[in-house]
Specification:
By secondary structure, the chain is mainly beta. The protein has a single domain, classed as Beta-galactosidase, Chain A, domain 5, CATH 2.70.98. It has an 8-stranded antiparallel β-sheet, with no helix packed on it. Strands 6, 11, 13, 14, 17, 18 and 19 form a 7-stranded antiparallel β-sheet that branches. It is globular and about 60 Å long.
Length: 334
C-alpha cells in the first residue's frame, strides 16, 4: 500500500502522520530494556501498543483518553526473563489489553507445561508494519509477524499474527494462522486473555451477552453465580472467580460479549470466530491493588493440557494442518 491520506483529508495535509499511524520504538530502561514496541494511533481516539518481542501481544490501550487495560506490578519485562515451570509465568506477566496463552498449554500447569505456556514470551520474526489505502480507499494500519514454538525432537509450531486497524476505525482486528509443521499430531491450546482495569473496570460496569448458559469454575464462583455480572469494590483478601459462558453463535458463525462503563461512557465488544474458539471465560479479580476483569475466548477448559487430552476435548492439530482464529475488539463511546 502507498502511504497517502484518504479523501478529503489529502487536500489538507502533507503526511498521514499528522492524523494517524504506527511507530516502532525500543524500550531504553528497566527489565524490558531492548524490547521493541509499536505505538498505534488510529486518528479517532484509539491508541494502543503492540509488543513484538512478547508474543505480539497488545499492552496499553486507551479510547477517548480513558485507559482500558489492566497492568500487573511486573511492568514491562523481556521474554528472556521467562520462568517456564509451574506458576513462574506470573513473574513475567505484564498484563495488558491482550495476552496470548498457549500454544501447547493454556490453563493449569502440569508436568513440563507451565501456566499458560510459552508463546507470550516469544519474539516475532518476519515482522513488518504497513500503512496506506486499501482497495476501498480506507487508510489501514497492518502489523504482521511470525512466532515459533519449537524444539529439537519436539514440537514445531508456527503462528503468523496479523493485527490491523484504520483511520477512524475504532476496532482492533487480530487474526492468527497457526500451523503444525511436524509430521506428527500436536495438541493446540490457545486462550486470548483480554484484560481490563481501572478506571474502565469498576463496580459500575455493565455486561451484555446474547444469552447462553453460565457455569462456575470454583465453589466460591458457584456461590456468586447470580452476580457474575457485577464487579465488587476492591477487597484485600478477594479470591478470584471464573465463569464459563456458553455464548450463542450468530448467523455469521461468531460469538459476542460486551462491557460498558457509564461513568466514563466507554464500551468494548469482543467479536470472535466460534469454530475454533469454542469456550469463553470471564475472570473476576476484585483484589485490592490487582483489580482486573478478564474476558477470554479460548479452546480450553483451564484444567490444563493433560486434563483436556484425557477428556477428549483437546484440539488436535494434524500434521501440516493450519488453524485460523479471528478476534475483533470494537470500542465505542456513549
Amino acid at each position: 500500500m502507498i502511504q497517502l491520506p484518504p479523501q478529503p483529508e489529502r487536500d489538507w495535509i502533507g503526511s498521514m502522520e499528522q492524523l494517524a499511524g504506527a511507530r516502532l520504538v525500543t524500550l531504553a530502561e528497566g527489565t524490558g530494556r531492548g524490547d521493541r514496541m509499536v505505538l498505534v494511533n488510529n486518528g479517532s481516539g484509539l491508541n494502543f501498543t503492540i509488543a513484538p518481542d512478547r508474543g505480539m501481544d497488545l499492552v496499553e490501550c486507551a479510547f477517548m483518553g480513558v485507559p482500558l487495560a489492566f497492568r500487573t506490578p511486573v511492568g514491562y519485562s523481556s521474554g528472556t526473563r521467562f520462568e517456564p515451570a509451574g506458576y513462574g509465568w506470573l513473574r513475567n506477566w505484564q498484563g495488558g489489553l491482550l495476552t496470548t496463552a498457549g500454544l501447547r498449554n493454556a490453563g493449569n500447569p502440569n508436568g513440563e507445561f507451565g501456566l499458560h505456556g510459552r508463546i507470550s514470551n516469544s519474539p516475532a520474526e518476519s515482522f513488518g508494519i504497513e500503512e496506506g489505502l486499501d482497495d476501498m480507499g480506507r487508510y489501514r494500519i497492518i502489523i504482521t509477524g511470525t512466532l515459533r514454538e519449537a524444539a529439537m525432537f519436539g514440537e514445531n509450531l508456527r503462528m503468523r499474527r496479523t493485527i490491523s486497524t484504520g483511520y477512524q476505525d475504532n476496532s482492533i482486528h487480530l487474526v492468527d494462522e497457526i500451523t503444525n509443521c511436524n509430521p506428527q499430531e500436536e495438541v493446540l491450546q490457545i486462550l486470548y486473555h483480554c484484560n481490563f482495569g481501572y478506571p474502565f473496570a469498576t463496580p459500575e460496569m455493565q455486561f451484555t451477552t446474547n444469552g447462553g448458559s453460565i457455569t462456575a469454575r470454583t465453589p466460591k464462583a458457584e456461590q456468586n453465580i447470580n452476580v457474575w455480572n457485577r464487579l465488587e469494590a476492591p477487597t484485600p483478601d478477594y479470591e478470584e472467580e471464573c465463569f464459563f459462558h456458553d455464548l450463542p453463535v450468530d448467523d455469521a458463525g461468531r460469538r459476542h460479549f460486551s462491557v460498558f462503563n457509564p461513568i466514563c461512557g466507554v464500551g468494548v465488544e469482543l467479536d470472535f470466530s466460534a469454530d475454533e474458539l469454542s469456550n469463553f471465560v470471564q475472570w473476576k479479580n476484585c483484589q485490592t491493588g490487582n483489580y482486573a476483569l478478564g474476558l477470554e475466548p479460548c479452546n480450553v477448559s483451564l484444567a490444563g493440557r493433560a486434563a483436556d487430552m484425557a477428556s477428549g476435548k483437546a484440539r488436535i492439530l494434524k500434521p501440516y494442518e493450519t488453524m485460523n482464529t479471528d478476534l475483533i475488539l470494537r470500542f465505542h463511546q456513549h
